[in-house]
Specification:
The complex is a heterodimer of chains A (about 150) and B (about 750).
Chain A lengths: L1 E4 L2 E4 L8 H8 L18 E4 L2 E4 L12 E3 L8 H12 L9 H14 L5 H7 L9 H13 L1
Parallel strand pairs in A: 1-5
Antiparallel strand pairs in A: 1-2, 3-4, 3-5
Chain B lengths: L1 H11 L6 H5 L14 H9 L8 H4 E3 L5 E5 L8 H13 L6 E5 L20 H28 L6 E4 L2 E4 L4 E4 L4 H5 L27 H5 L15 E7 L7 E4 L2 H5 L4 E7 L2 E6 L2 H10 L2 E3 L16 H10 L5 E6 L2 H6 L3 E9 L11 E6 L5 E4 L5 H12 L6 E4 L19 H11 L3 E4 L2 H7 L6 E9 L5 E10 L2 H6 L8 H4 L11 E8 L14 H19 L3 H8 L4 H13 L8 E2 L5 E9 L5 E11 L2 E12 L6 H20 L5 E2 L2 E2 L17 E6 L17 H13 L20
Parallel strand pairs in B: 2-3, 7-17, 15-16, 19-20, 24-27
Antiparallel strand pairs in B: 1-2, 4-5, 5-6, 7-10, 8-11, 9-10, 12-20, 13-18, 14-15, 14-17, 18-19, 21-22, 22-23, 23-24, 25-26
Helix pairs in contact in B: 5-6, 13-14, 18-22, 21-22
Classes of the chains: A alpha+beta (about 150), B alpha+beta (about 750).
Chain lengths: ~150, ~750
């Protein structure tokens, strides 16, 4: 099947029910997208599917054929993604960093949909788990990225 | 953690050296230091290497004058790589931004914690600060000596600016990168002058983390992300009860024929599938229908089939006697007998999982020269090396350990044997003759994690006629992780079981803290702030009970009992000031909610901490609005990282206070993922306000100390709101109706 990832077409021969996460990581070597829980609880695996934040660990690969998939590897090619990354660095958000690919993708999806998010918008979009407790820095960075 | 510190000296001693330890991961640049053939280096190393002194083991200056630094301590979010760059860069005179830092291989140079090494106990900076400064200063001196020869001027006429040696008189300068060859031949100086702290440019400043951009763009690589040529993937299914072995595999042939499957394996206590992708390996291993044997009677640490946390808690609570004394002052019996009032209460706290976001993994490759290469999340490279050698049946010197970035650790990645995937990966790699990357699914992780132990404590306090505590008697029951992993003396108390009940700073004249060892059937381990993670909750909430019975405000009583301890009294005042003044409540906040505040103090890992929490109860939920933390680590390296670490500690402490509890029924943990073991979510995160107090006391830790004050500060506020004491965690079990039954 054909997948469009970060604007590039990839031909993948794999069981159709394989989660997108493992196609990215094991078939394509794109390890920026992380495995945390496998059951859509933590959000470490968040990618954009047609601009929408999507948990790739429970998204079968056959369901995204024909869609535009964006991963963290291409985040700085996106003008909004670039602003988000700049805000992340400015606020020194990451600690261990493991969840941050997913956090950055979730923030980018939010700002694509809602360029000037209110507190409620941020709270309902930024729901990924972070065991290091970077939550306050994340909110500050999202607010800044929206102003940038 | 003191027990661990002392015991680990023994563990640290007998390591042989890996080749990599000497030759290094040279990136085409010469290491700065004495370059000698590997054979001679080994012979020299057999003589005593003084850890932290050989420049070449740590510092490699590249032709462009940037630095590759090998850190004895592993980065897992606590910011240690950045701190190392600040400390060494300050003395070496290289901007920390021009450092690349990686985890050092096993070797005698890196045994900076009393002759051993681990990343834990909030020890990394405080145990190596002096040595790392001297190391940087030594390297700088060698570069200046090389420059003196090259420029034919006395060393005394030279100075440095970041990345280059200057000769001010002639206006000439030489970049470090051009001096490396000459400097490498020079001996490491015996004595060097250190920079005056008044002139620090990077130490003590909020220098940006070296890894912030890579971690914001998915470029940072963790163990789970690594790949080597020819590698296959493996997944496991463990025996539900530790100690059980795979008996029959009913559908082995069918599973062996699943897509991508290479082979099916039996391992000690587990079955495994090796495949050409991890997802295929996982699907196949979970499809295996396995009959597990009951653990044989002689299997140590086998999980009893009838084990339940409920029954174990009951056993801890019922453990008779006063236990072995760990701390004893005055005459507590007499003081209790003569007290005007006696306060008694029992407390308990549950098992906790680490819940770090990166599931454990191990990548193993056998090399043609007989060495074994291991990439695994670890907090203790030498201990992993020694155990890997045992499993692989080779010499420790033949095991090359890589220590990638940790996707969170919190104590998860010490050597716990049954909780580490790498022994399985070694066996699988040997069996299939190919490199193996083994990943534990989140469900297998929840089954085999090494837990924060459960504990129960009984307190009895005597108050005088003025309601002031004159006697405190505590009996703790359970088992500490240091005793479990580093050996327990049956006549002595493991400090990790009682730290946070013992070592408190209040002036209570008559005290006894006793401990009853009760063997824990679970695999227990170190969890961020270890014994403090629960013991300060027990003590500091019971403190409020004493205050209430004695008719004192809990803040004022603390303040009064710290009259002779200015460092602690100042800190308590600092946190109150940060919070806009102490008020217990209940009071009405500007938004109309009814709120209360709780206060707690803790003395963990060489630092002092005072914490205030402001809490309300809304729609039957505890809402923590603000946490104020004043922390005194004596002196500091990076205030921005300290603030981030305190935020992190608050999140973990609050998560444990509100939500977390590992429950076993019939020998099996009930939660196998975050859906059954909730951790703090973004909407539950309070505002966090941090004040750093530099008292000038000996440097303390940073990674863990923010944790212990949070649960008691929150619990004390909840008690003020509900009128009932909180004596058991997590608070999700606590009925929030005011005045109702507990």
């Amino acid at each position: 099947m054909d997948l469009t990832i970060n604007g590039t077409k990839h031909q993948i021969d794999i069981e159709p029910e394989t989660p997108l996460l493992w196609v990215l990581r094991d078939e394509l070597g794109m390890t920026g997208t992380k495995y945390g829980c496998g059951v859509a609880q933590c959000g470490a695996c968040t990618v954009l599917v047609d601009g929408v934040a999507t948990r790739s660990c429970v998204t079968t690969v056959d369901s995204v054929v024909g869609a535009q998939i964006t991963t963290i590897e291409a985040i700085e090619e996106d003008p909004i993604g670039q602003k988000v990354v700049q805000a992340w660095v400015a606020h020194q958000v990451p600690q261990c960093g493991y969840c941050q690919s997913g956090q950055v993708m979730a923030a980018t999806a939010l700002l694509k949909e809602t360029p000037q998010p209110g507190d409620e918008d941020i709270a309902s979009a930024m729901v990924n788990l972070c065991r290091c407790g970077t939550y306050n820095a994340i909110i500050a960075a999202v607010r800044d990225a929206a102003q940038a | 953690m003191n027990d661990m510190f002392i015991k680990s000296r023994e563990i640290g001693k007998p390591f042989k050296l890996s080749r990599r330890g000497f030759i290094g991961a040279s990136l085409g640049a010469l290491a700065l230091g004495v370059v000698v053939p590997a054979g001679r280096a080994r012979a020299q190393a057999a003589q005593a290497v003084v850890p932290g002194t050989r420049v070449s083991a740590f510092i490699e200056i590249r032709p462009d004058s940037t630095v590759l630094f090998r850190s004895a301590f592993i980065e897992g979010g606590q910011g240690i790589f950045t701190a190392m760059a600040q400390i060494v860069g300050e003395e070496l005179d290289v901007d920390p931004a021009n450092f690349t830092v990686e985890g050092a291989p096993p070797g005698p140079d890196y045994l900076l914690i009393g002759g051993a090494r681990f990343t834990g106990g909030s020890m990394s900076v405080r145990m190596s600060y002096d040595a790392m400064r001297k190391l940087g200063a030594s390297a700088r001196m060698m570069l200046m000596q090389a420059a003196a020869t090259q420029l034919d001027v006395p060393v005394a006429e030279l100075s440095t600016e970041p990345g280059r040696v200057l000769h001010a008189k002639s206006g000439r300068s030489i970049p470090y990168g051009e001096l490396v060859d000459a400097a490498a031949g020079l001996p490491v100086p015996e004595e060097v002058a250190l920079r005056d702290s008044a002139d620090f440019r990077w130490i003590g400043k909020p220098v940006g983390r070296l890894d912030a951009h890579d971690k914001s763009t998915g470029k940072a690589q963790y163990s789970i992300d690594l790949k080597v040529d020819g590698m296959l993937y493996a997944a496991v299914q463990h025996s539900p009860h530790l100690g059980g072995e795979p008996d029959s595999l009913q559908n082995e042939a069918e599973v062996a024929g699943m897509p991508g499957v290479h082979s099916v394996h039996r391992l000690p206590g587990a079955v495994a599938v090796v495949a050409n992708s991890w997802w295929r390996a996982r699907m196949a291993v979970e499809a295996l229908q396995v009959t597990w044997t009951e653990p044989a009677p002689d299997v140590s640490r086998a999980m009893p089939a009838d084990f339940s946390t409920e029954a174990h808690l009951a056993a801890l609570k019922a453990a008779p006697g006063d236990g072995i004394a760990f701390e004893e002052e005055g005459d507590v019996s007499a003081a209790l007998a003569g007290a005007a009032k006696v306060v008694e209460a029992s407390y308990d706290a549950p098992y906790l999982a680490h819940g770090q976001l990166e599931p454990p993994s191990a990548l193993v490759r056998w090399n043609e020269d007989g060495t074994l290469e291991l990439w695994a999340p670890n907090q203790a490279p030498e201990m992993f090396q020694a155990h890997a050698a045992k499993v692989a049946d080779i010499e420790p010197g033949q095991v090359i350990v890589h220590s990638p970035l940790l996707g969170g650790f919190f104590g998860r990645h010490f050597l716990y044997e049954t909780a580490n995937p790498f022994p399985q990966a070694i066996l699988l790699s040997k069996a299939v003759g190919r490199p193996i990357k083994l990943i534990w699914s989140r469900e297998e992780e929840f089954l085999r994690d090494a837990l924060r132990p459960m504990s129960a404590v009984r307190f009895r306090a005597g108050l005088d006629a003025d309601g002031l505590p004159v006697a405190l008697h505590a009996v703790s029951a359970g088992e500490g992780p240091a005793g479990r992993w580093f050996g327990r003396d049956p006549d002595k108390v493991d400090s990790t079981a009682v730290e946070g009940i013992a070592g408190k700073v209040y002036a209570i004249k008559n005290r006894r803290v006793g401990h009853i060892h009760v063997d824990d059937p679970a695999i227990i381990g170190f969890w961020r702030s270890v014994g403090h993670s629960m013991n300060d909750f027990f003590y500091e909430t019971f403190f409020d009970e004493m205050a209430d019975v004695g008719g004192h405000d809990p803040y004022e009583l603390r303040h009064r009992l710290l009259a002779d301890s200015p460092r602690h009294r100042n800190l308590l005042e600092a946190v109150a000031e940060l919070a806009g003044g102490w008020k217990r409540g209940p009071f009405e906040a500007e938004d109309g909610s009814r709120r209360a505040r709780g206060v707690a103090m803790a003395s963990p890992f060489g630092s002092e901490v005072a914490t205030i929490a402001e809490v309300s109860i809304q729609q039957g939920q505890i809402v923590v609005h603000d946490i104020w933390v004043a922390i005194d680590p004596g002196s500091i390296v990076n205030p921005a990282i300290i603030e981030a670490q305190v935020n992190s500690a608050v999140a973990l402490g609050l998560s444990s206070a509100l939500l977390e509890e590992v429950v076993y029924v019939d020998g099996v943990p009930q939660a196998r993922n975050y859906d059954g073991y909730p951790i703090l979510t973004p909407d539950q995160m309070p505002r966090v306000h941090v004040r750093i107090v530099e008292s000038g006391a000996p440097m303390g830790g940073i990674g863990e100390p923010g944790v212990p004050g949070v649960p008691p500060a929150v619990a004390n506020a909840v008690s003020t709101l509900t009128g009932r004491r909180v004596r058991s965690l997590p608070l999700s079990k606590f009925s929030l109706e005011e005045g109702g039954a507990t």
